[in-house]
Amino acid sequence: MIRISNIKINYKSNQDISIKNKLSKIFKQEINEYKINKRSIDARDKNNILFVYTLDVNIQNEDKYLNDTIKKVGNEEYKFEVTGTKKLTNRPVVVGFGPAGIFLSYMLSLYGYKPLIIERGKSIDERVKDVENFFKDNNLNPESNIQFGEGGAGTFSDGKLNTLTKDENFRSKKIFEIFVENGAPEEILYDYKPHIGTDILRTVIKNIRNKILDMGGEIRYSTKLSNINIKDNRVKSIIVNDNEEITCDNLFLCIGHSARDTFYMLNDNKLDMKAKPFAVGIRIVHNREDINKSMFGNADFNILGTASYKLTYKSSNGRGVYSFCMCPGGYVVNASSELNRLAINGMSNYDRMSNSSNSAIVVTVSPTDFGNNIFDGIEYQRKLEEKAYELGNSYIPVQLYKDYINNISSKEYGNILPEVKGFTQFSNLNELFPEYINESLKEAIPYFGTKIKGYDNPDSVMMGIESRTSSPVTIIRDENHESNIKGIYPVGEGAGYAGGITTAAIDGIKTFEKFASIYKA
Length: 521
Hints:
The protein is α/β, with parallel strands linked by helices. The chain has helices spanning 15-27, 99-110, 124-137, 171-181, 198-214, 260-268, 288-296, 301-304, 367-370, 376-391, 401-406, 435-451, 501-516, and strands at 2-10, 35-42, 50-57, 70-72, 86-87, 93-95, 116-118, 218-220, 225-231, 234-240, 244-247, 251-253, 273-275, 278-287, 312-314, 320-327, 331-334, 344-347, 356-365, 396-400, 420-421, 424-426, 461-466, 473-475, 488-490, 519-520. A hairpin with a 2-residue loop joins strand 9 and strand 10 (234-240). Helix 2 packs parallel to helix 5.
């Protein structure tokens, strides 16, 4: 098989017929079958928007066609062989059932290790009820919300799967295949910005969970890791819900970036940890059609889909400012997980057809800003979230961009009406942030307006606070992914080793591989 790249087809054309015709001309033989490896959009010329393909083709005499854009393709399937010989005394325990925990548990179950999975939150269906009730009545359940529960924080997001991580072992390909096998749209296998959408992702997660159960895994919901018993520098058992002890030799911590109470407990048990940089900022909301038009002109959005973007800027004070978790045709959601503190996120369904497109615009912060002690970053986040809660009188604080620039509270919306899950309150976001954050945002947004027409529309809607961009701590681990306490494996985004659904899932698989190179099922 050979792979040919940079095949450009006008987006309005019949894609299948146009691709076959172009391939037949290139190879001077009839091509009736091909497989899409990648597909992206080239919208630099708004009058001739193109789909750009990388395609896999079987042809005769393939060697004579090889060049810079046509290359041979080998076997690209994920392969792994268990080489561990050490016998397990007790089954492994996985803490947390977000992306890292799901794919770690899937691999453990697939290879016969029969893990016990504990999740502090509820199952998908029960969790959805709690979240929807929170949007309606603003009464937060600290153990079942957008941060905690089956599927992790990513379940209530856009379900974006794009990553810059190099994938020489085809782990991400394996992850995408598992998603598709369990109900995700097939185009995630080749789309340049793959996404599932929160509505479809919920069903996909349930299907994967059921396969884990069928393969011998066990899941316990509303089961919170309360403490760890350690003897001779090795985990011996865990305490859940403050009253039940479970014998445990191997503990996988897939706890997510918002498990602040768990981080403190781990520190009390002498796990090596350190503070790490992260970013904080706002969500900015525009009309979906305005972003579409700026990115694609007058093109047919029914074919191209809702437009997304990625923006970066370096402010005069040296801080990075960038878009994060952009949600085309989505919603801003109240993503709080602690009482009397408020945090927000973005969420899209698969069709991305709400009237709004939103993105976090965040500014980098580091221990220089909040201190070098392990939990200074967590307390920095908490203070900002407490301020946001106060500013909005427990609701999401909202301000128009023009009023943010002029340092006055907003009174009413202009020509942009945001799509929001949860209650809002007009406020002055200048009062939320340290001045270096405000300075950075006020520099970056006009610059972004030079990249996307209308981005700095005076009526653009800003909301705060986006504070959970990544974990504020790293749990230190060695080359085998093991912490300084033997038998404890920090995994995924919460542990500081990932940044999104796909990278967290990849880290879960990598950790499984390390474990299975030592232990047999």
